[in-house]
Amino acid sequence: MLAYTVRRLLGTVPLLLAASLLTFLLVDLSGDPLADLRVQQPPVPAEVIEAEEERLYLDRSLPERYVLWLTGIGGDGDIGLLRGEFGPSVRGPDYDIGQALAERLGSTLRLVAAALLLALGLAVLTGVVSAVRQYSAVDYTLTFVGFLALAMPTFWLGALVKEAGVWANQQTGYTIFYTVGATSADTRGFTAGQLLADHLGHLVLPTLTLMLTGYAAWSRYQRTSMLEVLNSDYVRLARAKGLPNRVVLRRHALRTALIPLTTVAAVTVAGTVDGVILIETVFQWRGLGDFFVEAVKRSDAYALMGWLMLSGTAVVLANLAADLLYGVLDPRIRHE
Amino acid sequence: MTSTNHAENTVSAAAGDGTVLDVADLHVRFPTDGGHLHAVRGVSYRLRRGEALGIVGESGSGKSVAALAVMGLLPRTAQVSGSARLLGQELLGLGDAAISRVRGARIAMVFQDPLTSLNPVHTVGRQIVEAIQAHRDLPRAAARARAVELLRTVGIPQPEQRVDAYPHELSGGMRQRVVIAIAMANDPDVIIADEPTTALDVTVQAQVLEALRAARRATGAALVLITHDLGVVAGHVDRVAVMYAGRIVEAGSVDEVFSTPRMPYTLGLLGSRPRMDAARRSRLVPVPGAPPSLTQQMRGCAFAPRCPLAQPVCRDTDPPPTGQGDGHTAACHFADRLAGVRPEELFPPAPATAAVPLRAAPAAADGAPLLVAEDLVKHFPVRSRGLLRRRSGEVHAVCGVSLELRARRTLALVGESGCGKSTTARLLLNLIPANRGSVRYRGQELTGLSRARMRPLRSRVQIVFQDPFASLDPRMTVFEAVAEPLRIHGRFADGGPRRVHELLRLVGLDPEHADRYPHEFSGGQRQRVGIARALALEPEVLVLDEPVSALDVSVQAGVVNLLEELQERLGLSYLFVSHDLAVVRHVADRVAVMYLGRIVETAPVERLFTAAAHPYTQALVSAVPLPDPRRERSRERIVLAGDVPSPLDPPSGCRFRTRCPTFAALSGEQRSRCVRQAPPLVEQGEGHAAACHYARARNLLRGTSTDLGQEPTQWR
Amino acid sequence: MSELRTRPGAPTPPADPPAAARGTAHHGRLRLVLTRFARHRMAMTSLAVFVLTVLFAFLGPLLWPWDHTVHREILPNQPPSWEHPFGTTNAGHDVLGQLMRGTQQTLRVALTVSVLATAFGAVWGAVAGYYQGWVDAVMMRAVDVLMVVPLLVAVAAIGGNVRGGTTWWAVALIIALFSWTTIARVVRGVVLSLREQEFVEAARAAGASDARIILRHLLPHAAGPVIVAATLLVALAILLEASMSFLGFGIQAPDISLGLMIDNARTAAFTRPWLFYPPGLFIVLICLTINFIGDGLRDALDPRQTMVRR
Q1: Residue C4 and residue B337: Cβ atoms within 8 Å?
Q2: Partners of residue B286 in chain C, C-beta under 8 Å
Q3: pLDDT at B13 over 80
Q4: Which residue, B213, B251, B260, is CA-closest to B633?
């Protein structure tokens, strides 16, 4: 198992390196960070533009810039991914991209973690019920709900949920659901309990929305995988041993049917990143999703690259975690 | 079973007369797209305490479905009616809790495929313990001790260590023995074994049947042994029931049924199977036609459309099972006229090929070497998963194989799965490149030929595959499948369609069906299409890779007859790759036996079966069950220990020594020769060669083995 | 024994009559697939609805007097009426006219993406799977790397940087650029498993060339899974296009797409629901029908059909 872990861990290095190149090219080739500045009216003096180009290292060649961005060699100390520096921002020399990312990481992680856990739990539950009651009314209903969730644009669903929350608040006259932001604007003077309640209150609606995006695909998958296992010879043997149905389902069917879900769940983490961007926009969270939209709008190249590397690393790590979990769950992999 | 009156059965079902399982008028239907599939149509049998009942039938006869219905293991969509009483308790229709108390405790089951029967994520120990604790309040430690004990009983070496192994760490044979251990865990009254050895090699089959015997000895359980193999039944049961189209058509003591069958289908089954213990007969007796579709309402006897005896009464009235004396029943209107009839008297011989103009292979002197392989070596690299895909080892699939296929002869290449026989066949066809060695066709070297240079030679040497379902492209019509080789070689323009129709007629198919798709044909018919495709380019040599092993017994005979007739009429030479020694004895002129990538023995067919000199060949011959209960009981049997070693890391010296009974009996000094030196093939006279340092010819087909003693037994 | 001989007049059954007597079945497989698909009720309904949607989007504008642009004659900010069944915007658009054009643009983008990505992905996957070895390793690692970047992130990053308005074909191109990877994986999987099939080996034994094997044997088999994946790709592309528009990185005004309509009506759910709900419902409807069609196709094309269905 240790050798397996080390091997998988080493495998992520070239993948991340390739992802960094892709990220760099994607951002660098798709636009000029100073495009706005160049066409500004009245025209900005050439020296100012030149100074900006130098500050943003735009005066160097493409390969040079990539190496610089990755390692920081030959830079002014404000760049170099491997040293923990994300590079200068178009927003000015005082804007620290790394710090901004770190500030926003917390609220986004909260949202993602809550949504993923809920989605997984619900997907496993409905997938199992659907499979065990295949072709029943319950199965058809759950299937339809799954397809509906799959067809729903995340942002539209978010807006619906938000409006529903506002409506509920208006009807009751209390603030039951918070529909804007990750926390209340002013949390000074809150006790720890109040702070927690405030955080949770803001979390409810966005989590619900984000959850539905992952849930749809996973529950379908869990159903398929559970059906396959239910028709397997070893489940039949478990029944032939005289194990009651619920023991067979829990110990033999569910336990094995969960294995493939780990891989699928990891793959859809990338999809969750997409969902976060949309949902944070709808609910006006100042999280990583919002950061991304702003970076794109401002053509803030290094901010965008940093952000992409962060999300890329998250995706790679999720896949790694799934691989390792797979090894834990499936002895055939563990002993390879 | 002596009666069709089920009311009587239910009355007498109390355990007083020793009946443990009483199945009466069992019906199973499945709703399908094409209407209701009536898979089991009124099956009744009684099983007495400690008795072994064999249920024989071909695929689709309903034998497994009937067993699963008794166990309550059919999918929910199945509609089951009738009665199945275990010690007087009705099993059909029990709720989950009630049936769970019976299953595994009073009645247990062993399934066909040991590779999928065990849950891959739990250790085998845990799966046995679970079976014990489902029915008994035993503390974990005691249950585990019992699990070890059970593993020992079924013959698993080092059970204390193996109990903690995961299924994937055990071989197929061992896994099946674990399943048997689970079945016997609670000393059940009945064990149902559903094709328990079908997925296993013949030497492993012997081990598993031995384990099943041990399980019965230890528990006193009655056995229902479901199989398609008449040989397995002959040696292991007291009574036998033959199933056809969802119904028991004949039943009785195993001696009675095998010696004086009273139902035409049983006669057909016995006659269509070649016998390993008999010299080649002229032709096998194929049963014409195919089993009926069970989705249609059936009137009259289900076998009537295939039966040479059929009269109008057979098509109107389904014959009830009638007593033939001594507990022997047969469901046939003319059962009394069948006493003492031999299969070949009942089923009239018919030519297997149609009279079409043929072009025989260009004259080559009878017996001249056509295809010669020398010292072939093939290794397959094994790569690790993951990014780097490092080479983590090599499978030594074929190691120094030399063969000589002569004109108009059949050379059989036999061995168990993984011995390298199929790889050798592909090397001979130059379908995969050899690492070393040479293949010459009529003196021309094939290895290293470019594709373009190889193409004209492809028409001379063709191949027929094992799986008639996989070997035809499901999206091509039969016409296109047979025409493809002609198109590739640019011969289609010149009378192609006529040629295709000729070929189809030649292999016994109706050219009218040429524009149908493979899925519309039965297995036997598809195999005929595969043969027609191989013959399209008028080859001289056919490589037949297990051509009949995927087919039902009654269909096999027709294909074997076809191949033999084609050989005679077209002057073909066959390389017949097979694990089935009975078929090999019937078709081959010469036999080469492979074990772990090497040829261990080669001889003319008669000599190989009557005077095998290599211990492995001897074990193979002795392990094949004969469809003859009396001979089966009196035969000497060599049960090999252990499993075939991994071809990733074969043993040094003689590769067979780890399982060799001769090696086990040698002194330490004699053994070291086997360990150090790989034995070469040494001529034993009459074209017979064996690769064993201590070869000694024996005949294992007679009642008791005979030491032929032609070789000086130098090592005594 | 002579009485046991077959009666002379008895018809001897032909050796092995055809297992299924379905009559002469030209194109038997296609017909089988169509029959199976037709039995899938949700899929058939969905297909009908989808066809209607396409007609609405492409023929509707020819029949309806208002297009998607601002018209001075239109009274702004009106709820649905006989004259404007879906109401009007406060700038003076007819919402029905916008819906027709929006659906049209959305479908254009999605179908283009599906065709481009499927063609490219199928070739990529087939080449990797057929040649195996290092070719396969390099090509599939590239796919792995592409999949590290979330789809919307990739297309938004590019779309957001393209200045001066994004046309529908540019949006389609950008989405296709990143969404072919799933197709490539599907095709590679099919080719890998087919390579080892006996019927492919039989063709090789008959002397068939690589091209013949790929064209006659491998690709026809990959068609089933590819059709299913391509169908689902249409739904994915619709959602992606809508998300891009919503973030402001997709199709730009004065042109319109369903996503852009939702973005414009973001705050109007309460006050002017006729602006907010219809475009969203249209997206849901199109994606739902496509997913059901894909599901029906999968069932119809999958050889591992269960015995009982619905």
Answers
A1: yes
A2: 15
A3: no
A4: B213
